[in-house]
Amino acid sequence: MAKVTVSLDAELVVEAMVLAGVGSPQDAVELIVRDYVERGHRTEARVATRDEALHRADLKPRDVEG
Known about the structure:
Elements: H1 10-20, H2 25-59
Helix pairs in contact: 1-2
């Protein structure tokens, strides 16, 4: 996998290390980015499921009132 080098503010990286509970700046940033991406995928899956349910509800024939 290709690697990318990014410069970040030292205080931000230290905060990321504390939140991630790791001693390596590289590991901390990688863990946080992976978590962010995974959350995005879970959100997309929930929205897709909700949209499918709404779509199915729209496809049901409606009772005619009369």
